[in-house]
Amino acid sequence: MAPGVQLRDGVEIEFASGERIVCDGVAAGTSTTEVTTVVSHAHGDHLVDTASEIVASELTAALASVRQSECDPETITHPAVDLIPAGHIAGSRAVLLTDPETDRRYLYTGDCRLSDRLYLDGFDPVDADVLILETTYGDPTYRFPAPEKTQHRIREWLAQTMDDVVILFGYALGRAQKLQVLLESTARSRVFITDAIAELNTVIESHRNITFHSQRYTNDVTLQPGDAVVLPMQTARLGWIESLVEATDAITAGFSGWAIDDSFIYQRGVDEGFVLSDHCDYDELIELVTTVDPERVYTQHGFTETFATRLTRKYGYQTQALKSNQSTLGDF
After folding, report:
1. What is the pLDDT of residues 198-234, one digit of tens each?
2. Using CA atoms, how far apart are residues 39 and 48, in angstroms rounded to an integer?
3. Rounded CA gap, 89 and 91, in Å?
4. Are 236 and 269 in contact, with CB atoms under 8 Å apart?
5. Which residues on neighbouring strands pair with residue 108, listed in sequence order?
6. So what's the pLDDT on residue 312?
7. CA angle at residue 274 from 271 to 277, to 5 degrees?
8. pTM over 0.90
9. How far is residue 272's CA from residue 157's CA, in Å, rounded to a whole number?
10. Domains, the chain, with CATH or none
11. Among the record's GO biological process terms, what is one (predicted)?
């Protein structure tokens, strides 16, 4: 088979020599010892629970050990692989792969964001011949306000609701930490988090120059006006959360790029929605592509077909939307 890019369990890049490197997955039909496994960041849909060795940042490996109790991967290096801060969450990395025989450069972004946000620097794209790009928000509908504007709006809302208990929902890894940082810049003196978020905080604090001052929420805590609770997004509709909201008359808010849709608050069952995202919006995706200026762009996740089509029609790039188990260009 000719060298190239395939989407299977993860994104598989094959060099001219036949060597394979798999990003955020395991090569089909093989054990992880037969390929090099790269993990871009520690969100569950990108982790590889069967790999004992991974190319990843030290922070990503440490977070993986917490998120997957039976997995304690060792970080290794590879001469053809360079890791570049991706601006998605703490420890996240884009992956630059250079074929040693052809010098062809493949840039796999993983999840990424160009904008600086709070304690995270944005992704600084590099030149590559082939770009493999996540397109979660690859539709023109998804154009986000500048991060500073969103942060200001959140702080204003937190000030306006000082007489209330507020419950904030965001991903346990990434959004939850940013919400804690935002809360620390307000007059709220008590911020509570779950055990899961606290464990992730501890790992991040041990690798980054940042300290979170939140307290663990327990059944013994009596919430008072002005208190804030940060919870994982997926807990929003759990029975005990609904009971907590009812007992404290709390105001709830969700934080996501999807909050740009009017339906977000109804779908997530929250009172307020804020466009706080760790992914590139449509305009940042266009900027990323034009900065890298590759010969070919592969799109994955989200609006793959939409974004690939617009890149070709408007900008003239050769594009392919990745689909699982493609083996030749004719399968695209």
Report:
1. 999 999 999 999 999 999 999 899 999 999 999 998 7
2. 7
3. 6
4. yes
5. 95, 132
6. 97
7. 140
8. yes
9. 10
10. 4-141+279-331 (3.60.15.10), 147-274 (3.40.50.10890)
11. double-strand break repair via nonhomologous end joining
